Records
---
Amino acid sequence: MDAAGGFGFEYISSVTLRDFNFGPVGKEDAVNLEVGGNKLSAPGFTVCKGCGRIKQNEHSKNKRPQHDFDCPYAKHSEKAEWIEGLILYREYQSDALRIRLPSGLLAASYGPEVLSASLTAALRLGLKRYFHGSVDHLQFIQIEEPQEGAEKLYYIVVYDTVPGGTGYLKELMADPKNLIGVFREALDVMVNCDCGGDPNAKGCYKCVYQYRDSSNRKHISKLCAIDILSELTSNQKVIRPGVLDTRNNTDGDSELEVRFIRALGKSGLVAEMKRCQEGTPHYLIKMQSGKLWRMDLQVDLLGDVPSRPDFVLRPWKESERTHENEMAIFTDGWRYHADIVGEDCAKRQSILNTGRHVWTLSWHDVPDTQSDNEITDRLLLLRCKRSFIYFGGNVHG
Ligand SMILES: [Zn+2]
Ligand SMILES: [Zn+2]
């Protein structure tokens, strides 16, 4: 299991970009339009039929001439005819870099909005440093792609707004090490930034924030970017660009683990859940009852038959731990275990023999919290009744 697994990127040497401008935002009589699943207000522009100038707001402070000097309505503005709801559009060829967001456990503990906004901010920062200057001609967009029967996929697309491309992205992709270099540059700035001293700072204008584009700022977390980039850059695996296969990116087991973590965090019994990096990665889980638990990942358990559960839950305080209050959790994708049921049973029996509890989950046990938050708590409570009553601290009650 890879904490930042699912990460991938590809260079698209020729991409057709379609740029729409749906008009000024905040206009009340806006038409609602749906583009790529997002609802937009698309009032369009009102322009003069004679000269094409955009109609000025009557209350606008900086009044400029309403018409070109050679416009037939220049001297008789009251007679001007207007074209309403004009949408601007241009289409051009350029190049782009598409990055699939990590979908592993580390990524799941932050959630897609924070992950996407933070990684985008870090990427922009890294590129600025890498190219020693402004990269304003590079645009960053965040895209989500629904998948049938699986978690959504999230991408960041970086594209060159100069038709034909400026060569920046091509140069970057010339060597796969370069992107890791960009991540390292970003990490360096974030880790050493002045805002590092404040544990609550989510970033500042010297690192991940930038002055324009404030819409995503609430989702930007420097901590998230540092966590993910540390994971990606410390990975000794060679990272090279490939073609992203959108249908076949996740292996069943780790996707189920991710879903389990998310469902657990949203369960009504859990007050707070935090991923900790000290030592081996683990989770600190604070129950509504106030009791603290620790959940370790991929723990090797000895016994008659050695095994490695996906998670082991135990009291946070070492002094409170006994085999009887430890629980081994297996999140099994059925397709990977159908052939080895006998072996699995032996492993589980061996754990039970030590006095520990065993909990096995399959796809049907773990609700998809992304599609239905509301039923999650109820389902988890229902499904976990046996195990979680004890988990909440009432094991003997
Ligand atoms: Zn005019
Ligand atoms: Zn900063």
---
Amino acid sequence: MATPKPSSDEPLQCPRCVKKMRKQRHVRAVIDHCDECEGNFFDEGEMLAVLGKSADPEVWARSNRQLTPSPSQLRCPRCHTRMHLQPLNEETVDVDIDLCPGCGGIWLDGGEVDAVMRIGARKLAVKAAEARNSRKDTAPELIGRYLSLFPKK
Ligand SMILES: [Zn+2]
Ligand SMILES: [Zn+2]
């Protein structure tokens, strides 16, 4: 990778519309937002910083390891590496997000932020239930509570 990364103050180009994106300042990070397609680019760690625990890639990416990423149409606006399309799903929420294998950036199309947040919140609930389960002996009411997180289709 000989090309230097643009500094984070430089406006990035939307990978979909090829327009300059707008810097959206948040308390703990600066997100690049496209006014045209409502897409957002998050540098590594920025989703967690801005959106909180539910948006921590650690939460949803790990448990989705069985879903193999495929090459995306998009190139990373930060480092221009071809991004990977990572399928995420949880119950009724189903979304493909673009991850950059080069810099760890994440591209979310308009609306995908919501979907990812819902998936993250769900995963956290399941994780919490698992933690409760492993702490105590498998008391029947705990198993019931755990199973109730997976309503029958
Ligand atoms: Zn755009
Ligand atoms: Zn990148």
